[in-house]
Amino acid sequence: xxxxxxxxxxxxxxxxxxxxxxxxxxxxxxxxxxxxxxxxxxxxxxxxxxxxxxxxxxxxxxxxxxxxxxxxxxxxxxxxxxxxxxxxxxxxxxxxxxxxxxxxxxxxxxxxxxxxxxxxxxxxxxxxxxxxxxxxxxxxxxxxxxxxxxxxxxxxxxxxxxxxxxxxxxxx
Length: 172
Ligand SMILES: CC(C)(COP(=O)(O)OP(=O)(O)OC[C@H]1O[C@@H](n2cnc3c(N)ncnc32)[C@H](O)[C@@H]1OP(=O)(O)O)[C@@H](O)C(=O)NCCC(=O)NCCS
Description:
Layout: H1 2-10, E1 36-40, H2 47-56, H3 64-72, E2 76-84, E3 87-98, E4 103-111, H4 120-134, E5 139-142, H5 149-153
Parallel strand pairs: 4-5
Antiparallel strand pairs: 1-2, 2-3, 3-4
């Protein structure tokens, strides 16, 4: 945990592209024994890498053409990568949709099981929130699976504030 935290402490808060240029200062000097975590807002994510990440946490597969469309039309995409030498691995992902003024909703928050429990999910969410706040979005919502309510609670999210209920409509 302390190891990852020390990486974040030195990282640039502004997400950068994972490829092709190496414009993120913390990459410098990485080696196979000195892995680094970085964030990116680049939407050009390999959909098979993303599918593999979602498979790893047991999510149902979705048609890739729809995933691609969802990413393209999201307001914000934040991916999290591990760099080990020249190798980069997608280890986390999240995206948000928005009206670009008041509201944003966060979707598809995921950290690869090999990287869970190290503070990375929290770091990923903080990047998303920071980016949304920098766009002056003040109402940030999400839909939490029951088993992760406390994860989001720890980040300041409240279930049903002032009695507000999430309501859903599904086709028959
Ligand atoms: C939920 C998820 C993103 C959390 O990522 P993570 O990297 O393991 O979380 P972190 O290590 O950053 O944990 C941050 C804090 O939340 C807590 N936490 C993490 N997962 C939790 C859970 N399922 N329930 C309650 N608390 C949890 C941690 O104990 C930690 O607490 P601390 O700050 O007091 O130390 C990750 O477990 C995941 O990808 N799960 C599968 C996909 C999923 O369910 N996504 C959410 C869909 S709504």
